[in-house]
Amino acid sequence: MEHGVEKPNVKVTLATKISPLDCARLNLGYLDPASINPAEWQNREDEGILYVPRAGEKLYKVRS
Length: 64
Description:
Elements: E1 13-15, H1 20-25, E2 29-31, H2 55-59
């Protein structure tokens, strides 16, 4: 919070088939998944980049 206004402190970027417009509406960054090499994003925590493999699978995994 800054002066009574909530300010985001995290930027989330999705490499997804969700449209860039829809990502922007949700205040999310967008990357075309076909244009990235996942290995380039790994082990960069010291730069403030967290690579989460199969993140969507973990968010929506159904209990058995």
